[in-house]
Structures are given as structure tokens and as C-alpha cells.
Automatic annotation (TrEMBL):
The organism's place on the tree of life at top rank: Eukaryota
Source species of the chain: Panagrolaimus sp. PS1159
Protein name: Uncharacterized protein
Length: 206
């Protein structure tokens, strides 16, 4: 079915985890066909590819290359959305996706949906933090709100509430900032960041 496969794609097709790891460490580039082969051959490799993007983004951010890191996060977010079926229509056909073509392929991804959801939440939080640093508060607020809609554990909810509270504070929306800071405090009442933020938000001058 597939022709002109790259080395990493052959490794995925034959389920060779060690080879996949080696090729990714050496900088193998991902393309639509790479994702297609992972979906059809072994969905667990989809998670490996997502994780690779997140690791690359983290490295780029540490090297003070935030724009390139953001591009990695955006690509990972796009793939998570496709693979989670965010654009599936009423006839169970994947729309605007070159990765998952039909309901049968989507069902194959069922075992990894929970992990995809967790990755998507991590990506949204990371992108929100980057956008906040760039003072793009509308985008940051949008990402944190979407993350809270998807978050399934208190650790993620805490980080998202705290990030959104800081975004609201930066945007001078003190009421909303206090609401989110208090929500974060209900999860981790002893957290120093939350305590400091609530202390600032309680100042009479605000």
C-alpha cells in the first residue's frame, strides 16, 4: 500500500520500538504518512510521536527558542485534535484530517484516547504559558479554558486555574482572577504561588 517509506516509517510499520526511538532521536522528520502508518499499524506509536514533539518543544524552550517551541506545540495540538476525533461528523467520517480517514480507524485509537486527552491538556497549558509570556492574553485565556474543559485530574486543573488566574490578573480582571485563584486554592490550599496571588488580589488598592 505504501511506497517510498522513510526509515522511521518502516520501523513503525513493523513494530520495531528500538529502531523507532533511534530514528526519532536522530531527528527523523514527521509527515502525514508517518502518522497514517502509526494509526494503521500500531496506535501506541502515535503516542511516541506526540511525546517526541513535546520533548522537542521543551528542549527548544530551554534553548530560548520559544517561537520554534510554539510551532512544535501547535503541530502536536493539531494532531491530538485529529486523533481524538474532534472533527468527526454525524456520519462518522473524519473531516479535515489526513491522518484518520474513517470510523474504523478511529475505533482503533480507542485504547490511547485517555493518554491523547492528557497530552492535549499538557499542550494547551504549555501554549497558554508561552502566550502569557508574550502578552497574548486572549489566546492564553482561550487555551486555559479549553484545557479546563478537558482536564480529568486535579493536578492539571490546578495548573490551568493558576495560569488562567494569572492571565486574568495581567488583563486587570481582578474578579475573574480571584475566582480562579480560589478554585486553585481548593485543590492545593498550601501552594505558595496561590497564596501569594490571593494575597495580592486581596489588597484594598485592587
Amino acid at each position: 500500500i505504501f511506497v517510498d517509506l522513510r526509515a522511521v516509517e518502516i520501523a513503525i510499520r513493523y513494530g520495531n520500538q528500538n529502531a523507532v526511538d533511534i530514528f526519532l532521536r536522530r531527528g527523523a522528520r514527521l509527515r502525514t504518512l508517518t502518522w497514517r502508518i502509526a494509526v494503521i499499524s500500531e496506535p501506541e506509536f502515535v503516542l511516541v510521536l506526540i511525546r517526541k514533539l513535546l520533548d522537542d518543544a521543551a528542549i527548544l524552550f530551554r534553548r530560548k527558542r520559544p517561537l520554534e517551541a510554539l510551532h512544535r506545540f501547535e503541530y502536536a495540538l493539531e494532531k491530538c485534535s485529529e486523533l481524538m476525533g474532534d472533527k468527526i461528523d454525524q456520519e462518522n467520517v473524519m473531516q479535515a484530517s489526513n491522518v484518520v480517514k474513517n470510523k474504523t480507524e478511529f475505533i482503533r485509537l480507542a485504547p490511547i484516547q485517555s493518554q491523547l486527552r492528557e497530552y492535549k491538556v499538557q499542550i494547551l497549558l504549555a501554549m497558554a504559558s508561552l502566550k502569557r509570556k508574550n502578552h497574548e492574553l486572549a489566546d492564553a485565556l482561550s487555551f486555559t479554558t479549553e484545557g479546563l474543559r478537558l482536564a480529568e485530574n486535579n493536578d492539571s486543573r490546578f495548573e490551568l486555574y493558576l495560569c488562567r488566574a494569572k492571565c486574568f490578573f495581567d488583563n486587570k480582571n481582578i474578579v475573574k482572577a480571584r475566582e480562579d485563584a480560589e478554585a486553585a486554592a481548593t485543590i492545593r490550599p498550601d501552594n505558595s504561588d496561590v497564596k501569594n496571588l490571593l494575597s495580592i488580589l486581596s489588597m484594598p488598592s485592587l
